[in-house]
Design brief:
The chain has a single domain, classed as Electron Transport, Fmn-binding Protein, Chain A (Pnp Oxidase, Chain A). It contains five helices and nine strands. By secondary structure, it is α+β, with helices and mostly antiparallel strands. The chain has a seven-stranded antiparallel β-sheet with strand order 2-1-5-8-9-4-3, with helices on one face. Strands 6-7 form a two-stranded antiparallel sheet. The mean pLDDT is about 95.
């Protein structure tokens, strides 16, 4: 517990832990994110909070596509190279092992259990340090067996990104 009861309350919300990949022409990137959710059944929409200063922000806003790579708990190490931003790890995509998703060309990272590809519908400036990115799901696949109980979460990693 901290001295901030609101932060403590927000830290109680469970979050997945995903690799968000993006493409703008030949420029590809991968970053980790946890504020991601399905936001509509028809059309299928994904909503995600995207930090304005993230390298992926410009790649996604200019390229108009992104993918959510979903990992199993046992594959946490496959995501770790993407936890550092481009400023700290400028060559992370040169060393990354991935295939291109069929609809958007976004990287599907080796080790992912599943992925969904999205085309940007809207980027909403909500006045904070993150914008809300809404994408329509245009493709996806399951690559490894499992279900939601197998999905890697922020709790599994032992990190907190809330408050």
């Amino acid at each position: 517990m901290s001295n901030d009861p609101i932060k403590d309350a927000l830290s109680r919300m469970p979050y997945g832990f995903y690799a968000i990949t993006s493409r703008n022409g030949e420029d590809v990137n991968a970053m980790v994110a946890n504020w991601v959710m399905q936001a509509s059944f028809s059309p299928r929409l994904i909503a995600m909070a995207l930090q304005k200063k993230a390298y992926s922000y410009s790649v996604i806003s200019e390229g108009g596509v992104f993918a959510v790579n979903i990992f199993n708990k046992g594959d946490q190490e496959a995501m770790m190279p993407f936890t550092k931003g481009r400023a700290k790890n400028p060559d992370k995509m040169k060393e990354a092992d991935y295939t291109s998703a069929p609809k958007t060309g976004c990287p599907v990272l080796t080790g992912a259990a599943a992925y969904v590809e999205c085309r940007v519908v809207q980027m909403i400036d909500v006045g904070g340090d993150h914008d809300i990115l809404v994408g329509e799901v245009v493709g996806g696949d399951t690559l490894k067996p499992g279900d939601v109980s197998d999905t890697l979460t922020l709790l599994d990693v032992g990190w907190s990104y809330a408050g």
